[in-house]
Structures are given as structure tokens and as C-alpha cells.
Design goal:
It is built from ten helices and nine strands. By secondary structure, the protein is an alpha/beta fold. Strands 2-3-1-4-5-6 form a six-stranded mixed β-sheet, sandwiched between helices. It has a three-stranded mixed β-sheet with strand order 7-8-9. Strand 7 and strand 8 form a beta hairpin.
């Protein structure tokens, strides 16, 4: 039996969560075309014959602008502790920049002399062949510059499309082959250890990000405040009074649509109540972030 932990790291918007879900084979982490959609370390479990891989989706590493951004970076770095494999994700459509180099450097530093580094060049479905080749060569150069010996010496490279799953089976096979021998960490059938209340709050935030688009890129937080099945109360926090109408929508249409979309993903009979509340400057306030679990 092989088992182990696999951290997926990268800059914001490189497709980590889409890849995470594709590797597990089901949706565990929320997805949206917005930077820093992922705010928690989300663990998803892949069970195959003779092996169990625990994948960890992480917030995108970035230059923080507030207390929330700093905490997201801390969360990503903490996920690198005591893992067997790191999957560093780069965007095939964009040149390797300082943020990508930081990701690779931190991954190599965390792995040290043990563990394995798999560098993924994602978004084959959007990139031209010459772009993919350029990213692979750039990535190899970064690894060579920062990884003398240890994980850097054995780093491997995988061009994939997380959206279409092209190249994903080969990547998963490589991950499983590199896990150490050991017993499973989770019982058969476990897909994630994310608490139900957090999962529902994340589904609400995912739908809001999908509908509000660029109007509220970072200023939404969601938290389940009551859970008495089948009734679930979820609060949507914004920073300013002027943002409430954006979330609610004309005639409350946006809030209704969000509720319907989330309920469709819950067990039959769920009754979801959504409320919008102003929490001034929550992204910069430590007390608010502590309360929200960031």
C-alpha cells in the first residue's frame, strides 16, 4: 500500500483548483476565474487499488496587500510542510515571472532532500505549442537555478490541460508512483475532510464570484452561522454598505439565483437562507479574519 500527501501550489489563477478537482475525479474545491478564490487548504482524497493520495489545494502565492493576503500566503506555505510530493503549477499562456520563481523556490525549500517535485505547465487548451515549450524550458531553468540536489535534481515536467483533463491521467500516475509505502489516512469513500458548513459557505461564495464578476473581486466572505438540518443560514459579508445592492441584485434576483444554484448541489430537502451583512474592513482586521477562520 502506498499513501501520502500532495500539495498543489502556484500563483493565483494558474488553474490549481481545476487541476485539483481533475486529479481527484470530482469537484471538491470551488472554482472561479478570480485571483485568490481558494482561501483555505482544501484536502481531497483519491482512492485507487493499492494507493491513497491526499491532495491539498492551496491559496495562490502572491504579494499581499492586506492582512487577508498575508494569511493566504501563510496557509499556502503551511501546506508545504510534511508532504511527499509538491505539484507546482505554471500558466502556459504567460511567461515565467518572479511569482512563479518564488513558488518553485519555496517548493524546493520545503521538500529539501526528500520528496518529489512535479512541475505542471497548465492550460494546454489555451496555449500555442511554442508557448508550452517556452514554459517548460523556463521552468527547467528556474529549478536548475534554485534546486541543487534534493528534489530539484529529480524534478519532472508535465504539460496538461486541467480543463479538458489532457495529460492529467499521466500526472496522477506519476504522483501515485512517488508516494511512500504506508497505510491509508482516510477510510474508503472519503472524498474530503472539509466540514460541511465550510463547504456550503464556499459554494455560496463560488456562485457569487461567478455572478458578481469583477464587481466584488475580493470583498465577499461567506460563513454558515446556523445549521439545523434541513435549515442552513449563511451570512454573506461585504465591507461597505454600497456593496450590498450588488450582492442582492435588482429585485433580489442575484441572491435568489445564487441560492438556487447552491441548493441544486446540496442534499434533497435543504433549506438555505442567505443574508447580507456589512463587516467594515474585514480583510484588514485580525479579529474578523480570526472569526471567519482564515
Amino acid at each position: 500500500m502506498r499513501s501520502g500527501f500532495v500539495a498543489i501550489v502556484g500563483r493565483p489563477n494558474v488553474g490549481k483548483s481545476t487541476l485539483f478537482n481533475a486529479m481527484i475525479g470530482t469537484k471538491v474545491s470551488i472554482m472561479a476565474p478570480r485571483p485568490n478564490t481558494t482561501r483555505f487548504s482544501v484536502r481531497g482524497v483519491l482512492h485507487v487499488s493499492g494507493a491513497q493520495a491526499v491532495f491539498v489545494d492551496t491559496p495562490g502565492l502572491h504579494k499581499p496587500r492586506n492582512e487577508l493576503g498575508g494569511r493566504l500566503n501563510d496557509t499556502a506555505m503551511e501546506a508545504l510542510g510534511d508532504v511527499d510530493v509538491v505539484v507546482a503549477v505554471l500558466d502556459a499562456t504567460a511567461p515565467v515571472g518572479p511569482g512563479d520563481r518564488l513558488v518553485v523556490e519555496r517548493a524546493l525549500g520545503a521538500l529539501g532532500q526528500g520528496g518529489h517535485l512535479l512541475v505542471v505547465v497548465n492550460k494546454l487548451d489555451r496555449a500555442r505549442p511554442h508557448q508550452v515549450l517556452e514554459r517548460l524550458l523556463e521552468a527547467a531553468g528556474v529549478v536548475e537555478a534554485h534546486g541543487e540536489g534534493g528534489a530539484g535534481a529529480g524534478a519532472e515536467y508535465f504539460p496538461v490541460s486541467a480543463r479538458s483533463a489532457k495529460g492529467v491521467p499521466e500526472l496522477v500516475a506519476a504522483v501515485l508512483e512517488r508516494l511512500p509505502e504506508g497505510p491509508p489516512y482516510f477510510p474508503a469513500g472519503t472524498v474530503s475532510d472539509l466540514p460541511e458548513a465550510v463547504a456550503v459557505a464556499e459554494l455560496v461564495r463560488e456562485q457569487l464570484l461567478a455572478t458578481a464578476r469583477d464587481e466584488l473581486p475580493h470583498s465577499i466572505a461567506c460563513v454558515v452561522t446556523e445549521w439545523e438540518w434541513p435549515r442552513i443560514r449563511c451570512e454573506i459579508l461585504v465591507e461597505r454598505e454600497s456593496q450590498k445592492p450588488i450582492v442582492i441584485g435588482k429585485g433580489a434576483e442575484r441572491l435568489k439565483a445564487v441560492g438556487q444554484a447552491v441548493r441544486a448541489q446540496l442534499d434533497d430537502g435543504a433549506y438555505l437562507e442567505l443574508f447580507v451583512r456589512v463587516e467594515p474592513g474585514w480583510q484588514r482586521r485580525r479579529d474578523a479574519l480570526d472569526r471567519l477562520g482564515y
